[in-house]
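Hi support team,

I submitted a single chain yesterday and got back a structure, but I'm not sure I'm reading the token output correctly. Could someone confirm the output below corresponds to the sequence I sent? I've pasted both exactly as they appear in my results page.

Thanks,
R.
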Amino acid sequence: MARTICGEGMPNFYAKQIIETGPTYCIGEWSDKVLTPLLTHFSNICKPMEQYGFRKDKNGNPMIEDCQTLNFFDFYYSPESQTIFRALYNNVLGMQDKYVEYWKAVTHRLKNNIYVVGYDPINEPMPSYHSAFDFVNKILPGHYDRMQLEPLYKRLFETY
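Hi R., thanks for writing in. Yes, this is the structure output for that exact sequence:
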């Protein structure tokens, strides 16, 4: 998702702005107090990036060599990643607006290129949650698609 969480894609300054503005949580602000210790004890789910103990570069980002010791998808379950996805879907700090404008510029630039067949606006999207109840609701088949992904895709495709 972003360099600050061992990924790529979103500009790092946006990701850091989202995380610093907060609140940063995984499943829900209140439910994380109970669920996070259990989940991180048995897995990397909801494990904050700081708990990985990765060395940092001069910009405060985890060292790429350290990030590569794990599968990148492990970081998708971090509170930081969840907070960034939540900001994108809910337009926190205008992130969805900025994302739509980005794809508008890409579309404008590539619209006449005969070698571009299409593009996928989000590679490996991830649902985000507001509470334990919301988590249960969104893991039901089709709910995440209808509640978060479809509205974003609809807005993007209308802009194209």
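A quick pointer for reading it: Residues 111 and 117 are 10 Å apart (CA to CA). Let us know if anything else looks off.

Best,
Support desk
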